[in-house]
Amino acid sequence: MQKLRSRIIGLLVMATMLVAACAPSAPTERVGSPGQAPAEPPRAPKTLTATALREPASLHLDLSPGTTTSGSNQPYLIVHNYLTVRNEKWTILPQLAEELISIEKGTWRVNADGTMDTTWKLRPNIKWHDGVPFTADDLVFSLGVYKDPEVPNRSGNVLRSMESAEAPDPRTFVLHWSSVYVDAARASGLIPLPRHLAEAPFKSDKAGFLNSPLLGPEFVGLGAYKLSRWEPGVQMEFARFDDYYLGRPPFDTVTLKFIGDPNGMVAAILSGNADVVLPLGVDTEVAEDLKRRWEGTGNQVTGNVTGAMRFIIIQHRPEYARPQNGFTNRLVRQAFMQATDRQAVAELATLGYSQAMDGWFPPTHQLAPLVQSSIPQYPLDFNAAQQKLAQAGWVKNAQGELVSQTNGERFDFELRSFQEGPAEKNLATIADGWQKVGARVEQFVVPGALNSDAEYRNTLPGGSITGQIWDMMYTSALDSRVIAGPLNRWNGSNRAGYNNPRVDDLYDKLAITVNPDERVALHKTLLQEVFGDAAYIPLYWEYSVTLALKNVRGVGGLVDNSSTWNIFEWNKD
Question: How far apart are CA 86 and CA 111, in angstroms?
């Protein structure tokens, strides 16, 4: 397989060089009339073309029914900005906000009755892409939309603590909280909506607002580039927004092509049809081979261990889960944790650049060493897994197949993964271990066409390899009050249908606990509960690969499943 990949890339490189060699030479410079200075040639437009593996279902992160992995987050920060943004070190930076809220400066106030007030000051001269000024009234309106029970939202429990908001002046947004929320500086759940455009359609059809073209092809945002064209399944085109509040963006146009095949993404940059290949998607082995072939050219192959987790989401709802009394049984979940060679999966997926995970704090996080000893461990042990399965009523028959002692049902399990770099290798490695304990595992790589089908993704009968930003796991991803279902049009952040009142209670306590020592104790208890219950199967920390031609500058690493958090700083020589 390695030799085949090397040969494919070698052929692509040779083809690219041949195209360059056969290209017509530049035309001879034309000289002006005698006595006249040569005419100044018109400036060629500065363009950037990037590729991503997945297309988003909409351009609103919290209201989108689609997945937020596999590169589908890349367009959001091209076309829109938020109150804050995070950089590669996971540091929160003010974006639309002039500065972060602060207890010392009085813009973050905890009241004696347990309520809280936060005051955000907006930067001056911010405009929507249609030229209308952005004001605090837009944020007041946006909060009203997100708190409306008729509008499904994946923000989670943060919205429950936001009680009301007001705008004393156009640049001041005051938010009143019913209780303390320690992550208020992230400004989660406060994605700005243009009141002057969205208020009328929202009031006329709240239930249909998620399908509004304002969240799709007619999106009007606050980012450095504005959406000029969206060709579904093909690409998005963005034009420079000259009135951007941070200054004139470098590129005249930015094109983001959606190429659902990682090899196609590599071919695009090798042929000169792309300047940048954004994560996720490019296989680490392919990236390593390409790095060797590009040595000395100046072309760039960079990677970073992200704060995104790779894990197996498990269907917890009996009405969807198959087989019966399978992964809905705690002992069964624990057994398959011990039948999963997570280190082998991490090695295959990242070539050793990343490591297997068992909690949700990245290895570099300051809390990781403080909570590690509290996390229940499931070392690879097929005998122990077999014993747990027997306790749960699953034993091997004469043919070595795992069957139920209750009704003779065979343990047939569907394991999915979305189509990206190491998907097939991951599936095969995991399935190999599970088959050793007698399960029959159907490995299924989900085609891109089903990527945005939220009901399909959330009603999976077995498990699916997926990704998640680490801090979502301890804020809402397992909260039973935001389970994705028909009532919220499958838009809840708890996709697995996991329901544990003790976890819900710990979520609520973490949201209001400020004391650092008390927070560490709560994190330990939450980790013990979640992993003792084997709520999901952790795999490894994602390692993202970015490809860029030598003349491209400023592209950062993957943060919050997006590399475009600093796109205003990108440039091209």
Answer: 28
